[in-house]
Amino acid sequence: MFESQTPYQSERIHAAAIYCSDGRVGEHFDDFLMHGLQLPRYDRLALPGGPATLVDYPQTKLENAAVVDELQFLIEVHGLQRIVLIQHQNCAFYTGRLGLSGFEVEKRQYEDCQRAADFVRKITKIDQIESYFARQLDGRIRFERVQF
Ligand SMILES: [Zn+2]
């Protein structure tokens, strides 16, 4: 048996983050959301490629339907008002599944932030959508705002 020492708090923060499920950056995403953006207890949607699942790729058709469904559920039940999209450097979804390389990867990830935000805005009517890029720098992860 294991009992978590983290106290349970029932209030919701009404925010969700959509990011890649890559376990190497999971703790960094948590740190950024909880301490960088002051969003403790945020709802998480973690899938390979993160925001890429909200872009119209043949490779993400199934995930897209699932994320749309999940978002609508969270809006209805958790009263979601803010959505944070995060891309990360060296994302294997972009290299492996989309077959991109070099500068194309980051360029496409930035474009996808915009496309994903537009799509989320369209299907949810939520205005507060922001995007970030998690960059590796000297063994650490730095989160940069993606401006449109
Ligand atoms: Zn990834």
- Amino-to-carboxy terminus distance: 48 Å
Helix content: 25-40%
Strand neighbour order, sheet with most strands = 2-1-3-4-5
Tally the helices: what do you get?
A: 4
List low-pLDDT spans.
Answer: none
CATH superfamily grouping: Carbonic anhydrase
Into which percentage range does the β-strand content fall? 15-25%
List the ligand species.
zinc ion
**CATH classification class:** Alpha Beta
Task: Report on the biggest sheet.
Answer: 5 strands, mixed
- The second-level CATH architecture is 3-Layer(aba) Sandwich
Structural class: alpha/beta
Shape: globular
> What is the name of the CATH topology?
Beta-carbonic Anhydrase, Chain A
Radius of gyration: 15 Å
Structure summary, number of beta strands: 5
What is the structure about, briefly put?
The chain has four helices and five strands, in the order E-H-E-H-E-H-H-E-E. With 148 residues, it is of the alpha/beta class.
Task: Give structural notes.
The chain has helices spanning 26-36, 61-78, 92-97, 103-124; strands at 15-19, 43-46, 82-88, 128-137, 140-145. The longest helix has 22 residues, at 103-124. The termini are far apart. The chain has one domain (15-145): Carbonic anhydrase (Beta-carbonic Anhydrase, Chain A, 3-Layer(aba) Sandwich). Strands 2-1-3-4-5 form a five-stranded mixed sheet, sandwiched between helices. With 148 residues, it is an alpha/beta fold. The structure holds zinc ion.
Index terms:
5 strands; Beta-carbonic Anhydrase, Chain A
Question: How are the SSEs ordered, and which strands pair?
Answer:
Layout: E1 15-19, H1 26-36, E2 43-46, H2 61-78, E3 82-88, H3 92-97, H4 103-124, E4 128-137, E5 140-145
Parallel strand pairs: 1-2, 1-3, 3-4
Antiparallel strand pairs: 4-5
The structure holds zinc ion (ZN).
